[in-house]
Amino acid sequence: MSKIQVFKIGGNVVDNPEKLEKFAADFATVNGPKVLIHGGGAIASQMQKKLGFEPVMIEGRRVTDADTLRIVTMVYAGWCNKTIVALLQKNGCNAIGLSGADGAVIKASQRPPVKLASTGETVDYGYVGDLKPENIDADFIIRLTEMGLTPVFCAITCTADGQLLNTNADTVASSIAMSLASKAEADLVFCFEKDGVLADKNDDSSLIEKIDAETFEKLKAERIVADGMLPKLENAFKAIANGVSQVVIKNSDNVGNSRQTTILRQ
After folding, report:
1. Which of 135, 146, 166, 248 could pair covalently with 260 via S-S, beta carbons 3.0-4.6 A apart?
2. pTM of this structure
């Protein structure tokens, strides 16, 4: 098959009706087979607080107990996923909304307690999923695109035993891209509310146009890259090292132009 493009949009885009409307219209014009993965963390955090729960985030990843799992499943697999699918249909893109449980397309494993390299603290993330590209059914995704459908994945996955898990959406996107790269040429595009990786997160003109692994380590040490940007870049470098042709990070408003951060292969 021809090149397949994997896009990921962040929760701050999903939570902004104007940005989401523009992204859906622009994404619908992208030619060729494509897959969309979306977050929804901003909305999930709002819902947690409304229900009396305080979100717990560690290094950009959400700690997920049983109550949090119910909330994020409702938000991600329900409202967010179907809103995006409906917007794409409005723009002439025949989308189908999925979780990892649907068609057993993404098999995850529950993350064991992990020791953080940054602090040495051991953290139990709860009902959080870890993925391996080989546990994603790339053939199923390709068959959907060959039917003229655009798969839209939320970040809910499940184990072989039927346990739903909350999985970082950047991880889902990079794992899907790596899995598809074993079958065809695959690109990965992370879209969020900034123009890319910024030297100063409050200055949109401070775009870092290219990042290699050495630069990434320096940016982490200087805390220029932190919080939610950490898993994004970690997954970006993993993808480019494992067969994905190109990985870029850009603003959801910039789908049609080249203002972006490009991840460099070593």
Report:
1. 248
2. 0.94
Number of other residues whose CB lies within 10 A of the CB of residue 236: 26
The mean pLDDT value for 193-202 works out to 91
- Within 10 Å of residue 84's Cβ, how many Cβ atoms? 24
Q: DSSP per residue over 118-168, as a string?
A: TT--EE--BSBEE--GGGB-HHHHHHHHHTT-EEEE-SEEE-TT--EEE--
What is the distance, to the nearest Å, from the Cα of residue 199 to the centroid of all Cα atoms in its chain?
22
Produce one character per residue of 95-114: b if its CB has 16 or more CB atoms within 10 Å, e if not: bebbbbbbeebbbbebbeeb
User: Using CA atoms, how far apart are residues 242 and 49, in angstroms rounded to an integer?
Assistant: 38
Name the packing angle between helices 17-28 and 81-90 (round to 10°): 50
Average pLDDT over residues 172-201: 95
At residue 106, what is the residue type? I
Q: Which two tokens stand for residue 136?
A: 């994603």
Euclidean distance between CA atoms 169 and 155, whole angstroms:
5
Residue where the block lists tokens 């919080």: 227
Mean pLDDT taken over the chain: 94
Contact 109, 164 (CB under 8 A): no
Strand partners, 98: 153
Number of Cβ within a 10 Å radius of residue 182: 13
Q: Write the single-letter amino acid at 73.
A: T
Confidence of residue 111 (pLDDT cuts 50, 70, 90): very high
Residue 252, both tokens: 């959801």
Residue with tokens 């090292």: 241
